[in-house]
Specification:
- By secondary structure, this protein is an all-alpha fold.
- The protein contains eight helices and no strands.
- Helix 1 packs across helix 2.
- The longest helix has 25 residues, at about 170-194.
């Protein structure tokens, strides 16, 4: 099985009955999809479940993939739907037990051993600041949070985000601007309370 095959070629092979071709798609897109679900849901267990649900839904519905958009955009959309379903069923974003900047290159939580020269007060301040950013992000409505996650963490372009969400670029920019403003206000109020 050729791991360098295009997504479209792998989709065609999967639809022809080669399930191993879909396994290559999963390996190719698992890390970015997991990273997105982790940032949307905040907990590793929820993110893994949503990621798995997204790939199962994609496999079951692959015959409905029209190819109008890239496979990656279609997968992001399915993953976001899985996240929204989980957020609705949990009546909130859940709690995050670690900082978003404590992830390895695969988006997984990593134990951070402090080997820096930061003083204890500097370390405490950095951790608190990170926790405040995480809380401010999780407090946003999902439609703003997803745009911020895709733009700032996944480093997607406005056009890519618009394609994934099926909304105009202007709406993406508006949600990003409003979400960042709300985060800034929340962070300022948290900072004033400290």
């Amino acid at each position: 099985m050729d791991a360098d095959a295009s997504d479209d070629h792998l989709i065609a092979r999967t639809l022809a009955g080669e399930t191993e071709a879909f396994s290559i798609l999963v390996r190719r897109w698992e890390r970015p999809i997991y990273s997105l679900t982790l940032r949307m849901l905040g907990r590793d267990e929820d993110a893994r479940d949503a990621c798995q649900e997204a790939f199962l839904a994609a496999f079951r519905n692959l015959n409905k993939f029209r190819g109008d958009a890239k496979f990656s955009s279609w997968m992001y959309r399915i993953a976001l739907n899985a996240c929204h379903t989980r957020l609705r069923s949990s009546n909130g974003p859940g709690s995050i037990n670690y900082s978003l900047d404590q992830e390895d290159e695969n988006g997984r939580r990593m134990e951070v051993a402090d080997t820096s020269t930061e003083s204890l007060p500097e370390q405490v301040h950095r951790v608190e600041r990170s926790q405040h950013v995480r809380r401010a992000l999780q407090a946003l409505p999902p439609e703003m949070r997803q745009v911020i996650v895709m733009k700032e963490y996944e480093e997607m372009t406005f056009a890519e985000i618009a394609e994934v969400l099926g909304i105009p670029v202007s709406t993406v920019k508006s949600r990003l601007y409003t979400g960042l403003q709300q985060m800034r206000l929340r962070l300022n109020s948290l900072h004033g309370a400290i």
